[in-house]
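Handoff note, outgoing to incoming analyst
You'll be picking up this chain. Sequence as last confirmed:
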Amino acid sequence: MSHRHAVARLRVIPLPFVLVIALLCAAVVLAGGYWWLGEPDPPAPPSAEASDALPTTAWSRAKPDAVAGGGTLRVAVGAMPANFNPVQANGADDSTTQLLGPTTGSPVRVTADGGWTVDTDYARSVDVVDKKPLKVRVRLNPDAVWQDGTPIATKDMTAFRRAMSGNVRGLEVASTDGFGDIDSVERNGRFEYTVTFDTPRSDWPLYIYPRLPADVSTRPKAFNRGFRTKAVPSNGPFVVTSVDAKTGTITEKRNPRWWGRKPKLERVVWRIAAPDVQAEAFAADELDAVSVDRSTYDEAADSGTVHRAGGSQWSHLTLNGGRGPLRDSNVRRAVAAAIDREELAAGAGQAVGAPGRTAGSLLLVPGQSGYRDVASRAITPGPDEARALLKKAGYRQQDGKATRDGKALTLTLPVPSNTPSSDARVKAIVDDLDEVGITVTTPTVKASRFFPDTVVPLDFDLVTFTWPASPFPVEAAERRFRPVDSPQNYTGVAAKKLNAHWADASAELDDDRRAVLIHDLDTQLLRQAVVVPLTVLPEVVVVKDGLVNYGAATFEQPDYTTVGFSAKR
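Most recent structure output, in case you need it:
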């Protein structure tokens, strides 16, 4: 389609699966050949990583006085949210998070390496004042206000905690995780409180600040249905001023009550469009920035400046260890050994002009503090290794097929329709497994039904998609491995002997000691051989020349007070 038609197509709201893929993008790992069973090494510092590694943040940085005042940033997301309340059951999706980024803030700002620092626009200080039990004291910035000018205060935190722990009847919350572990919120004044946790958890920074004002947290009707067509109250430098579902346009303007540094931009305008339409619109100069993948890179790359970061999304092959031949750990290890992860990584990187990078951890990604490539030591790759493991499992090679009791080893990897990135990965995996005698059938499943009908009910032997990495990795990854009936555990198994490892890693509040525990947990999880790490998908964003402080990042989010266009443009 020609560029002149891009504007019209921008008004088309895409299928829900675009949103599903965004949600489930990048981050699980491992399984493989011979297992390294020694004591874990201490995690390597970031400087020890390969010299060709992509940066964790990639954008043109400029000091505020080098950014021109005024202007509009035109960007896009894949879907219109069903609810603009990000903690309501229907609003907890990636589109909501992106759209509300310029309007949202908290005392915790995630740094480039996945750590965090206190954002003084929102809090004077955040301190752990006791570890047994875990107590965190928060001193709010008294200048901070909600969109209507009401101060953000202790009462908002007490009401929000009560709502998110499931104690307000009728509220349809997305999850009670974390808030349910809070024993109390003690008021120390109008702008100071202490949060006490029943159970110590390393992701506590996620649960110490109110996302909503008290009058929303306490009213089920407002919480559940009040933000279907309008945004929740802003506490950031911008406010949502209009939501036009007909044209798929969301407009945000400077927050007149913002107490911090004045934003450089006057407006941020979001358009709703599928990825291919976003790339076309960028090439037609109708967007200022666009996130691209292998299917849209060529369309957009020649029309601006390409920023490439290491990425928080990573692909994997999950093996259903609860049924069929894959109940045998040797068969699972053979699958892991057969796959050429380096080739997959090279292909994924080459498609977007980036170096390839294999995923090396179940919990962390390259560039993240404490990251260690455990998988490269745990998996012995190659067809010979895979055949040896199959032989150990009782299979013999006959006419190029692995057979046992006269039956060929055949596995199923359902594939969602119209997903080019997944299709390329599946083809490579099928070819690798065929080389060692494992036949894989790949029935196509309607994209919108892929997860509810296939992945969630574990109706597969093998499945590949992507998981997102997290700045707070232990708790995020744990739900993917235990318990066996966890909504995110697609492995069909859960090792009870690892329960203590998960608990220890979650409870450790010292960053360095937790990194060692994570490394040990990675090693232990590899022995389960139910997830094969494949490749970290580079984050690639193409921006118009002159756009600064906005681009590609693994974890760091833009400071929307400094995003804008270079004064020298």
